[in-house]
């Protein structure tokens, strides 16, 4: 396939692009970086370079300003929103201008769509949207992407949880603390984190790309979410380090403001639609992932 990718130079995008190349696909990557084109990869810096998308079979849209890196001032919230909506709107417009548009549009979202959930059950893609900033951000992002849907194009929305990998993402920020024995639970530790290995995240995108029946929203999370307290203990055990520290909720809220909800919200999510469609996860539980795949972090 000929595939256009936005966000192809980040933690997830870099590995995804390499896997797509390995499978024989040809990529055009939207990036502001000056990179040397490879045999199967070309780069562009502006979607204005395209009149339409007729030359592509699929589009994968992962672009967006990192949500956790900076305080959520009004200005930063607008930047987070614009970085997602502007590119998605431009892509939708190009879909509409195409006589033969790409057959598949895979567009990013996040489990922040759901906000803080209850403790009585596990939640799937039928769960309603939350009401706080991350939820409204994801909702607008998804609604924009769905405008590309037509009889010629199917749209898949990927609601991504915490992506784990040894060389980046959330663990890159956590590991230094744990290696120095400064790890610990956040708040009361009862909140569930919806996580997924980077390898499974990439495999789910490839699954959605190749499964012509797939469309709509998908939770890109492992089948088994984990409480923050258990996450803390299992990561500490894998690193053979103590993890006795505890950061109270009020300190997280004081230090991080609204961003603290990304760490404290309870999200016992399951990837129901992926499981229903036959996707097979390689990593079902965090303990199995850490012990079998993540030995390099030691």
TrEMBL record:
Domain (DUF1731) ranges: 247-292
Ranges where the NAD-dependent epimerase/dehydratase domain occurs: 3-220
InterPro entries for this protein: DUF1731 (IPR013549), Epimerase_deHydtase (IPR001509), NAD(P)-bd_dom_sf (IPR036291), SDR39U1 (IPR010099)
Family the UniProt entry places it in: Belongs to the NAD(P)-dependent epimerase/dehydratase family. SDR39U1 subfamily.
Protein name: TIGR01777 family protein
Lineage: Bacteria, Pseudomonadati, Pseudomonadota, Gammaproteobacteria, Pasteurellales
